[in-house]
Amino acid sequence: MSTVTATPGSAPVFSVDGLWKVFGPKAHRVPADPGLTALDPAELRSRTGCTAAVRDVSFDVRRGEVFVVMGLSGSGKSTLVRCLTRLIEPTAGTIAIDGEDVRAMDKARLRALRRHRAAMVFQHFGLLPHRTVLDNVAYGLEIQGVGRAERRERAAGVVAKVGLEGMEQRRPAQLSGGQRQRVGLARALAVDPEVLLFDEPFSALDPLIRRDMQEEVIRLHREEGRTMVFITHDLQEALRLGDRIALMRDGRVVQLGTPEEIVGSPADDYVRAFVRDVPREQVMTVRTAMRPAASAEEAGTGPAVRPDATVSEAIEAVARAGTSARVLDEGRCVGVVDSDALLSVVADAAPGGPAAGGPAPRTEPRAVDAPAEHREPSPAPAREEPTPAPTREEPTPAPTREEPV
Ligand SMILES: Nc1ncnc2c1ncn2[C@@H]1O[C@H](COP(=O)(O)OP(=O)(O)OP(=O)(O)O)[C@@H](O)[C@H]1O
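That's the Glycine betaine/proline transport system ATP-binding protein sequence above. Prediction below.
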């Protein structure tokens, strides 16, 4: 959903390096002891009584991106994100926000961080039952000491922004689950934080409302370009929302990349098994499939597609035209895609190998045996519903010969 482009060149919002969170007795000795860090989770537990919920994790959250933390239950997502604002105290490592050391912040500074700079939207919205929607949304501003008239005005603006206009005077009990979640979202937005942190905010919602809320987040992000960190255990949600995804397993980040990188070049068998059911043509872009134009004529004819058009969109364009398509980047032809190359992306085969610009060759997707101590019978992602195919962008209009898809 990269309509608001994250700016890789600019300083990151969050910068995390070598982060550990260990629960249990004498937790501090674990990150410092190579003999203990080498143990797998079950061995570590039996030897020390400790759980390493986050193990040596490093990443940056770039300004303006939606950074998704994904993984199965117990992989460490919530612990990691709570460490960012020290709702959970890290055991080792560094965390900076805009270059400022979070671990060195005193209580007042931390309070300001949580109130003004990095607001959390929780799964259980934590709404105050006796207050109206408007007063719930204004609550964060009240804590900040904003005067009544101003906070009500600002709250009313945010209530409208999340689609709750007309419900300002209702109480939480008079709302549906999805509407309550919107109130929680509005409350976080009202304080105008630099970063929104979402902790599985939609997992309690039914599939259609969940989808609505995902659209809402995409819309807000598109309109405001606000940096977001979003926890989910749902792969489809991660692919829909994430500019980049950190995939966690047993406290480690096993892969960090764009949805296309994760689906197209899984880092290991675990990730490969995780993404094996993803409709590749909806995630992979034509960049994966394109080749140089063979001739000036080929570069000058055929339907046009954007480099970031999905393979699925390009297949439609190629099928309609009955010829290969040109990949146009700001009016310049940067390559050509034909039906064979597009279909080989769908089939997960790399025509001509990586040298031809295709995805890295991959072994046949297969199930990976979960380690004995793992809670899940298989690393296939938990799904609550037959989820719709992941799309990273709005459905685009049918291509014409002139307009890139
Ligand atoms: N306070 C705690 N004390 C001991 N262990 C904990 C504590 N909190 C979390 N853990 C353990 O740390 C690991 C990571 O938990 P965490 O809640 O971060 O995972 P998660 O990926 O967010 O899971 P879920 O999707 O179920 O919320 C788990 O093994 C969990 O049991």
